Amino acid sequence: MLHRFTIASNEGPRILWEQMKGKKVKTNDGQGVGEIKEIVQNYIRLEKGIVNKDKSWVPKYLVDAYDGKVLWLVISNDDLGRGYSYTTEPNAEQYTHDFKAFRATPYGQKQSSFRISSRTYA
Question: Domain 2-121 classified CATH 3.20.20.70?
């Protein structure tokens, strides 16, 4: 089953987000960007690596789908590195600024509905 996300609010479905801890995350070009270690209101914290772990915070609005094993982002790995990943949790003002900028991108325009829902596709 493929669970596709459309996220309108910064909260998201609480039970579903909590179930995502420990899941792998990949960008839309198939690049692994880490494993979910923490989930907060607007962001997910990822860790990648074994010894020297790279830690990053990624906004929830970048989530596209969950296939049962991997949480997929709507954005490419290159674009993720160009401004959607932080080493510390950003504040609410940064989130608002980034979300407005995201909505103007081709990725943001593809996300036509930002209402909270989790649709399941067989």
Answer: no
Cα–Cα distance, 54 to 75 (Å, whole number): 19
Residue with tokens 């949480």: 71
pLDDT tens digits, the chain, 122 residues: what are they? 555 554 444 555 555 788 899 999 999 999 999 999 999 999 999 999 888 889 999 999 999 988 889 999 999 999 998 888 899 999 999 999 999 999 888 888 877 544 333 333 33
Q: Which two tokens stand for residue 11?
A: 């909260």
- How do the domains of the chain map onto residue ranges? 2-121
Cα–Cα distance for residue pair 48/23, rounded to 1 Å: 12
